[in-house]
C-alpha cells in the first residue's frame, strides 16, 4: 500500500502543478481578451481598481480550483483503471466502501 501511496502522491503533485499552470495561462489570456489589459499582478495593491482586484481574485480562485479538481478526478480515474482501486486518500469517499452504513 505504501508503494501505491507514493505513486498517487507523485501523480497528484504533477497533476496539480500542470493544471494550475494551464489554468493560469488560460486565465491571463481570457482576462486580456475581455478587458484589453494585463491581469493585476498583485490585487492587494491599492493602485489596482477595487472592482478589478475583486473580479480577478474571484475569477482566478474559482477557475484554478475547478481546473485542479477536474484534473485530480481524471488522475484518480486513471489510477483506478491502472491499479484496480482508488488512491488511498480517496477510498473513503467511494460510495461502495460505505455499503451497509446509514447515510
TrEMBL record:
Q: Where is this region: Disordered?
A: 82-103
Q: Which residues cross the membrane?
A: 53-71
Q: Which Pfam families match?
A: DUF4235
Stored InterPro entries? DUF4235
Q: Where on the tree of life does the source sit, at the highest rank? A: Bacteria
Q: Which UniProt keywords apply?
A: Membrane, Transmembrane, Transmembrane helix
Q: What is this protein called?
A: DUF4235 domain-containing protein
Native source organism of the sequence: Nocardioides dubius
Amino acid at each position: 500500500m505504501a508503494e501505491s501511496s507514493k505513486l498517487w502522491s507523485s501523480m497528484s503533485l504533477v497533476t496539480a502543478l500542470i493544471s494550475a499552470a494551464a489554468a493560469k495561462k488560460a486565465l491571463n489570456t481570457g482576462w486580456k481578451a475581455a478587458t484589453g489589459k494585463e491581469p493585476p499582478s498583485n490585487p492587494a495593491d491599492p493602485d489596482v481598481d477595487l472592482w478589478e482586484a475583486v473580479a480577478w481574485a474571484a475569477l482566478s480562485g474559482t477557475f484554478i480550483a475547478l481546473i485542479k479538481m477536474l484534473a485530480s478526478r481524471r488522475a484518480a480515474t486513471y489510477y483506478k483503471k491502472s491499479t484496480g482501486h482508488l488512491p488511498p486518500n480517496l477510498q473513503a469517499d467511494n460510495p461502495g466502501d460505505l455499503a451497509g452504513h446509514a447515510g
